Structure formats: structure tokens, C-alpha cells
Amino acid sequence: MIMRSDGGGIDLLAEDATYRLPAEGLRALLFYGNRVRLTEGWVETDRGLAMPGPDRRWIRFVLGGTHYLIHRSRLGWVARGDVPADRLFRLEAP
What is the pLDDT at residue 8? Predict the structure, then answer.
């Protein structure tokens, strides 16, 4: 599950933890295509990453070793507050 957080970022509720992508990281991800590290609470973690997908229409999240996708337009809707929450699509292991 993904939802807007305080300060313009987003929160990602995974099976094992809640991850946060602050507003400045969200901008770097969406506008510059940078890979960004997520936080668990307020602490940066190696267990949470966000990066553009293979064709940049998709955003890939790695949360606790599990890979998820969301279309960048849907991520934008949540970040702007147009929709209160959305789901990430879990990628199955190859």
C-alpha cells in the first residue's frame, strides 16, 4: 500500500515495515530518474530503494528484498493527494 505522508512525501506499507520516501527523494526519483534510498521511520535503510523501471513509465520499489512496481502516473496521483492511497504490484521471483 502507498499513501501520501506529511511534508509531501509518500509512505509505503510493506509486509515487514513502513518505509518513507521524503518529498526531496520523490522529486529526485520522478524528475531526475535517480535511485533513492527509503527510510524506516526517520533512519535511512539499505532495505528500501526506489528507482525508475526499465521504460521509465514504471517506478520500481525494493522493500525488504521484495520488488514492487507502480505506474509513475499513479505514484504522482498519490503524491499530489488526488487519490488517498494505491497499491503496489508485487513482482514474482523469476
Answer: 86
